[in-house]
Amino acid sequence: MTRDTYRVHDDRESASDAEMYAALWAAAPFPRLPDDAPAELKAFTIDVDDPKRVYAIHRASRRHHFQLLVERYILQIRYGCQSKSCNTATCFSCRKRLAGAAPVRRYNATSARTLAIYMASQDNPEQGLCHNFSAPRPGPEARKPSKAKGSPVEFRAAPVRPQDPRNGRRSAEPGQTIEEVKIATKDSGREEKQSGRKNSMGGTISRDGPDLSILEEATPTDHRSFVQNVFGTVAFKMLEWLTPRNLDRLTGTEDKNTIMDDGSPIGDIQMDGSKDAKTDAEKGKTAAVKLAAPFREISKVDSPRTEIPVEAGNKSLETAIEQPKEQKAKHTSSLETSSKTSVPLAPRKPVSGPPVEPNRLDGDAQPKRPSSLRTKTDHLEPTPKEAINKMASELTNDVKTQLSSNGISMPRRKMSKPLITSPQLQMADMAPTLHDLKYLPPARVMNSESPSLKDDESEASHGVQAAGNKSQIIPREGRSPERLPKRRDSPPQSLSYLSIEVIGLLCDIMQTDGTSEKHFLQPQTIDAGLLAVRKDALPLTRDISRRGSTAFSSSAKQEWRSFIEQSFFYVLSRPEPLLKTFCDGESRLFDTQTIWYLMLRMTRVAPSLVFDSLWNLAGSLFKPPQKLEAAYDWAKEFQSQDGSSQAALSNYEAAQIINICLHALVAAAPLTYDARQLANMSRIRSYGLAIAARDESSLEPSALCLQYEDAFTNDLALRLARRVFAAISTRRRFTELLNLQLDLRKDEKPQPDVLETVLGTLKFLDVDSPPILDFEDDERDLHENRVPTLMLDWARTVMLQGWEGAAEVPSDGPFGGALATMAAIYKNRKSLLLGDIHFRTEYFAERLDPVDMPLEWLSFNQNKRTVHLLDYPYLFNPATLVTYFRAINYSRMNQSYETASATGRLIYHTIAEGTGSLIPVKHRRDMLYERLRTAASRFTVLEIRRDHVLLDTFNSIWRREERELMRPLKIRLGEEGGEEGMDSGGVQQEYFRLAIAEALDPDYGTFTVDTRTKMAWFQPGSPEPLWKFELIGMIVSMAVYNGLTLPVTFPKAMYRKLLDEEVTELHHIADGWPDLTNGLTSLLEWDEKDGLVEDIFARTYEFSVEQFGTLISRQMDTGNQWPQFSEMHSSTNPEDAPMVTNENRNSYVSDYIRWLTDVSVRPQFEAFKKGFFACIDRRSVSLFDPDTLQSVVEGVQDIDISELRRVTRYIGFDGEASHRTVRDFWSLVKRYDHEQKKKLLEFVTASDRVPVGGIRNLQFILQRNGVDDDHLPSSYTCYGTMLLPEYSSKEVLREKLAMALENSKGFGFA
């Protein structure tokens, strides 16, 4: 069961999440319904009062929890835990324990972060965490900055002083106030800039470059270490230097003694994650106080008359604001100016949102305009910076991430402090810098006295508003502080649900404004030709008149984009609004094509948002139903850990949500315009390929293949697919447990399987209602194939990605859910218009051992945790399944052969002739040999006379032991007549052809043969004893066991019965009884407007068969047994059987099929079935469907001469295929009819059937046999070789070949 990971549980205080959301609520931008929105949208618009439902806050908190998880993994990977028996693979303590006395090299910061980010990006990231207490890390005194010999003095670390060597801040001494510390810090900063720092030699140190030594940890050099030789190079070190945390350290804003190389502070936490008690006692502050400290401090200066001087050099507007002593000074921005302009602060209005203590959110500030966006009228001119600040600014601009992914230029801001300071997060100070929040004030939220900003100034108003009120907007000349945009108390807004027209409007707006997300899904935009509208519905449009000339300004576009993203997130991430969006008034889902079209529109404007929101929504599918809480403790535990107030979903609601998510995945795939293209792409991906090989490159163009690859490798879409399929397996387990409870109570109906409910909406043949949207007929026909095919492709993609290379696979999780989905679709493939070829996944067959894997499957016992891939044979090609089947038979045959050989050697060495023999008397020795012959014989030898093939066969295999039948077969055929056939395979083919022909002869009394189809069926009430049917079944079993095909034709109904499948439909008997099928079909389709059924057809409700000239009938609704031959004279036919009418004609057809294929021949078939499984393992036959089993027994009757010519090999003919005799041979053969083709194939291979898999699996060789017009062609049937003399003319070849084929009976050497 895959659960959602909402947070990383560490030792932060219980209120930390609430405080974090409170701080983010104060800092996040609030989307509002734009002024030019149509009036219809106002009915859907609601206020959002839950911070978790605000998209900006959600994105920020998600990023925050991810970074926490990364930090925990870094600590685990680099330092390990305190447990000596740790078994977490990524924990350093576990690596150390497994290494024993061998040395273990630690990961450096870059390699550890790389691995940590990968581990934190998994579907279930907390699974890899070590839950033991962390090990102590080395303190700052253990680290010494590494100094390269001869390096310039400017890049060496400056000596540590009581005050911070980078930002000039001093530590507070006992009894010293915060204000005194700040004043001393400022004064010392000025003095230091004027006098400069002096080194130990008395010279002034010029810091023109960054001190990179503070980023490195002192480690012993090991030139044999792979980690040091790769990740320790300068190129890889730069990756760690360029992280926001280390950029901050390079600029000198944090105390070097408080930051480790991995970026986490030393003094705040211990290695087990617990807080340093001593530090807390000294500080006397809790996490909540730290969170609110910036707001309380700012409240002291938050007044209209307060002026903050902008300091020169490293002093910025941020550092000018007074900070509490618990807060570290922030780094400076190279974009700030050195002018000492005073900036008055505007008074702040209260912030609306969730209840927060007043002393926590005391102040607010206006977002500042970055200097990069200032105009020439600004009096703040930049002054030259020191080299270190200049370099830090450049590096920050390179690695600064954007809030939006649409490519719009946004002001860049340097990170003001490390991403993660400690598990006790100071969210009020960190939220804006961590999550890159931007305050995007809409035009109508500004102060009523301030005019609207111009388009060229809109970006300046979109700066980040810090939670700590530290950044201020630098006003342009002539603009008063009161006219700056301010936050209002209006809460964020969103649409409560989305109608079809609203979705069209929102997608059109983003597409028209150019604010859609840049992605690789095709088509990237929906043009007019793909648009669909609801019948008799008018599309919605914006009211441009309300905005006038600013309707399409960048601020208006951004306002619309924020509102649309918020609405998509609100609706798609919760079950109630989602189901309201995609269901009608009766809570029934829209038709599948309408859902697909709506998802297509949304995924082409905001695919990341759609997939991520649905991923969050899918987490609700794992919540157990309430009925399971009372029965299972784990369900109660899950409810207590979940913490959400949302009720568990019902099985029907879960199926609807899964259906919507699957349609979103289907919509991600590129559009195709014919079913053939769709099937070809599915076939290519079944091999695990993105593009087909060169010989198959003509299937589909490479561009389409790459578009498919982009869609099916999209990280967010693939993550959604994994969670949805994992939810499917979980919901199916819930259903099993619920049904188990119902079996105990027996007072309710069982719960349906969630997959059956999902697929019920996809059965197009059962849906009579047209789609809600107006689509063309061609598009509807294509969509019928699109949805199930792409669902299979997504299930296959998840399986191939999660497969570990073994045939034994999990039954739960994403792989188990995807496999169950494929199984459910296969079960309903007829109604979903799919063929068997859609399910084949050749990727598995190419990577599994064809011999060992089938044997492992025979001994595998299916359980609740794991299943075997061969239990789903439709994943494999029929030819591959035949290979597995024959591998099983060959293994059993080889085992029997080796056992007999070992027994024979033991007997020989025990009683061999000689002085040491245990049985010296020869007569007794011979008697013992005779008695042990059965155990010591390595082959099953049958001596058969040509005139009594069936009789000799019965005598040879009657009462044979099973171990004898398992051994390789050897046939001695016609030796009494002087034939010298040496059995290497050809004699066996000849023998089985003769034996089956005699057994199926209608005169023999066991089978009947249809005069039209030539198919054989059991004789009802046959006079022959049942043991003969069993022996005939054993003959067929021996042939199949030895890999031979038989010249027999049985209807598919018999193979369905051998596989324990029911024969209930007319198409099940159509191949064996075509005339009967046509008559019964006419009966079912008759329209009584043309006459009554009983008058037109005049059928009675009875089953009749002519046996040996006597008509035998039985009424089908009163009996269930057919009389045998000995009972025929004592039984009478019914005289007053009821007529078949319109009311009972359906039941009549069903009963007639059952009596034809089961009741009338039940004893004979059961005896035949018993003999059929004498040599064949019953489970191995379950690999086949009826068609494949028929081809294994009978072979393929269609003979393609062109294909045969392509696979033929030549021996002795110069020029091979171009030789005159060869050309004459094929020119004659290609004119043969079907019977002549069968004779030719039988003459060369001893069988008139093509083996399963086609002619490519057939060996056919033409070998030159001298130059002579007197000899006839001959053949080695065991080796598939025809000896063809080089005749003088084509006429001679025609005559000799025809004579050889007509007289091909008997053997010289076979």
TrEMBL record:
<keyword id="KW-0808">Transferase</keyword>
<dbReference type="InterPro" id="IPR032353">
    <property type="entry name" value="AZUL"/>
</dbReference>
<feature type="active site" description="Glycyl thioester intermediate">
    <location>
        <position position="1278"/>
    </location>
</feature>
<feature type="domain" description="HECT">
    <location>
        <begin position="961"/>
        <end position="1310"/>
    </location>
</feature>
<dbReference type="Pfam" id="PF00632">
    <property type="entry name" value="HECT"/>
</dbReference>
<dbReference type="InterPro" id="IPR035983">
    <property type="entry name" value="Hect_E3_ubiquitin_ligase"/>
</dbReference>
<feature type="region of interest" description="Disordered">
    <location>
        <begin position="303"/>
        <end position="390"/>
    </location>
</feature>
<feature type="compositionally biased region" description="Basic and acidic residues">
    <location>
        <begin position="476"/>
        <end position="490"/>
    </location>
</feature>
<dbReference type="Pfam" id="PF16558">
    <property type="entry name" value="AZUL"/>
</dbReference>
<feature type="compositionally biased region" description="Basic and acidic residues">
    <location>
        <begin position="163"/>
        <end position="172"/>
    </location>
</feature>
<feature type="region of interest" description="Disordered">
    <location>
        <begin position="128"/>
        <end position="212"/>
    </location>
</feature>
<protein>
    <recommendedName>
        <fullName>HECT-type E3 ubiquitin transferase</fullName>
        <ecNumber>2.3.2.26</ecNumber>
    </recommendedName>
</protein>
<feature type="region of interest" description="Disordered">
    <location>
        <begin position="445"/>
        <end position="493"/>
    </location>
</feature>
<keyword id="KW-0833">Ubl conjugation pathway</keyword>
<feature type="region of interest" description="Disordered">
    <location>
        <begin position="252"/>
        <end position="281"/>
    </location>
</feature>
<dbReference type="GO" id="GO:0061630">
    <property type="term" value="F:ubiquitin protein ligase activity"/>
</dbReference>
<feature type="compositionally biased region" description="Polar residues">
    <location>
        <begin position="332"/>
        <end position="342"/>
    </location>
</feature>
<dbReference type="InterPro" id="IPR042556">
    <property type="entry name" value="AZUL_sf"/>
</dbReference>
<dbReference type="InterPro" id="IPR044611">
    <property type="entry name" value="E3A/B/C-like"/>
</dbReference>
<feature type="compositionally biased region" description="Basic and acidic residues">
    <location>
        <begin position="179"/>
        <end position="195"/>
    </location>
</feature>
<feature type="compositionally biased region" description="Basic and acidic residues">
    <location>
        <begin position="375"/>
        <end position="388"/>
    </location>
</feature>
<dbReference type="GO" id="GO:0000209">
    <property type="term" value="P:protein polyubiquitination"/>
</dbReference>
<dbReference type="InterPro" id="IPR000569">
    <property type="entry name" value="HECT_dom"/>
</dbReference>
